[in-house]
Amino acid sequence: MAAEQAKVDPMHQFTIEPLFGTDHWSIAGYNIAFTNSALWMAIVSTVLFVFVAGGLKRQLVPGRWQMAVESLTGFIDNLLAANIGPAGKKYVPYIFSLFMFILFANLLGLMPLALFGLHPFTPTSHFSVTGVLAVLSFSIVLIVGFARHGLHFFSLFVPHGTPVWLMWLIPVIELVSFLVRPFSLALRLFVAMMAGHVLLEVLSSFVIDAANAGPLWGGIVGLPSFILMVSICALELLVAGIQAYVFALLTSLYLNDAENLH
Amino acid sequence: MPQIAQFSDTVASQVFWMLVFFGLIFFVIGRGMVPKVMATMEARDQQIAADLAAAEAARSAADAQEEAWRVQANAQRAEAQALIAKAKADAAQAAEARLAAANTVIDARVGEAEGRIAAARGDALKEIETVAAEAAGDIVARLAGVTVDAAAAQGAVKEVLNG
């Protein structure tokens, strides 16, 4: 029994596989195979499109769906208005796309779609994906900052009230903390997503192995693990929302630096 | 960890498809649909604000109209009372004038009547004198047989009558 039992590899869920025989696709020598990761990005985009399109009825008195979409756009609008001010209005499309893509990718990766034979994949659990978003946000901050303030943007590294005798140290620290931003953005999301999925997978392997080991172990280990798994599923749903929010919030804070300096 | 183990094999594909799908999301949903959703919200907010403003304006207009109506009613009432007072005063004046006119007419008639009475008395007195003079002449002629001429008799009577 133990021999035929496949080892549950909690990292296997993150494996990227080319689909539909596209593994030879390439542009300028770079392989761009349509992978399961790309497929889930496509699914996320489609679901997001359907969701927002459903809220586009433009009724004066909104229905439930329209209300849901409007509350999300209103949420992003408020976030930007609170963090950047009136100048934040023009970033609503970007921050909305960012927030909704991360949120939907996180949530769809958590859906129990394996029950229907689909293998959910969470693109945001790969730093090569979150890195793209982080670099996009960081580039926008740099472009906006230098376009609006020119070289004066460097005054960002000298906070107000810096004593003169610390002028050799504070800008260095500020510069490092500024340059770390894209990495912290990308890694925070990737780590949070990966950790949650690994934890769920490990617990599920406990449940399966304990159940296979007989009723005693199933009762002592399997059942508590299963209950814990259910609670952690709820926690992961929360984390999915929080990580999307954190990414959008930090991007808007960085954009605030670029728009208003201090 | 496949994220690291497969990194160099998959990074190009991951970045490419991420940019493709995020670009689609940004341009189609973020730039295409979100502004419409927000425009709908804005239009709704504006309509609500406009409706509230219209209601407020209508209320203040109604208040102003009521105030104007009250002022007008007061003015009209005052005007009416002034008219009544004026009519009363006019009537009183006219009555007085007519009374005065009537009085003068009556006075004139009384004066005229008095004049006529005085004239009639004078005539009567004159007649009495004539009668008395004739009677005196007759009495004298009958008693003394003297014929007194009329003028002398008259003078004597006048003297007796008028003291």
Question: Keywords, please?
Answer:
A: 262 residues, mainly alpha, 6 helices, B: 163 residues, 3 helices, rod-shaped
Lay out the secondary structure.
The complex is a heterodimer of chains A (262) and B (163).
Chain A: E1 26-27, E2 30-31, H1 36-54, H2 64-83, H3 92-110, H4 127-149, H5 170-212, H6 215-260
Antiparallel strand pairs in A: 1-2
Chain B: H1 2-5, H2 7-144, H3 150-161
Helix pairs in contact in B: 2-3
- Strands ordered across the widest β-sheet of chain A: 1-2
β-strand percent of chain A reads: under 5%
The amount of helix of chain B comes to over 70%
- From the alpha-carbon coordinates, what is the Rg of chain A to the nearest angstrom? 23 Å
Helix content of chain A: 55-70%
Total discrete domains of chain A: 1
Structure, explained:
The complex is a heterodimer of chains A (262) and B (163). Chain A has helices at 36-54, 64-83, 92-110, 127-149, 170-212, 215-260; strands spanning 26-27, 30-31. Chain A is mostly helical and 262 residues long. Chain A has one domain (2-260). A two-stranded antiparallel ribbon of chain A has the order 1-2. In chain A, strand 1 (26-27) and strand 2 form a beta hairpin. In chain A, helix 2 (64-83) crosses helix 3. Chain A is globular. Chain A starts with 25 loop residues before the first strand and ends with a helix. The model of chain A is unreliable at 1-5 (pLDDT under 50). Chain B is an all-alpha fold and 163 residues long. Chain B has one domain (2-162). Chain B has three helices and no strands. Chain B has helices at 2-5, 7-144, 150-161. In chain B, helix 2 (7-144) packs across helix 3 (150-161). The mean pLDDT of chain B is 88. Classes of the chains: A mainly alpha (262), B mainly alpha (163). The interface between A and B is large, with 54 and 36 residues. Chain B: This is ATP synthase subunit b. Chain B: Residues 61-97 form a coiled coil. Chain B: GO terms for molecular function: proton-transporting ATP synthase activity, rotational mechanism; proton-transporting ATPase activity, rotational mechanism. Chain B: It is a single-pass membrane protein. Chain B: Keywords: ATP synthesis, Cell membrane, CF(0), Coiled coil, Hydrogen ion transport, Ion transport, Membrane, Transmembrane, Transmembrane helix, Transport.
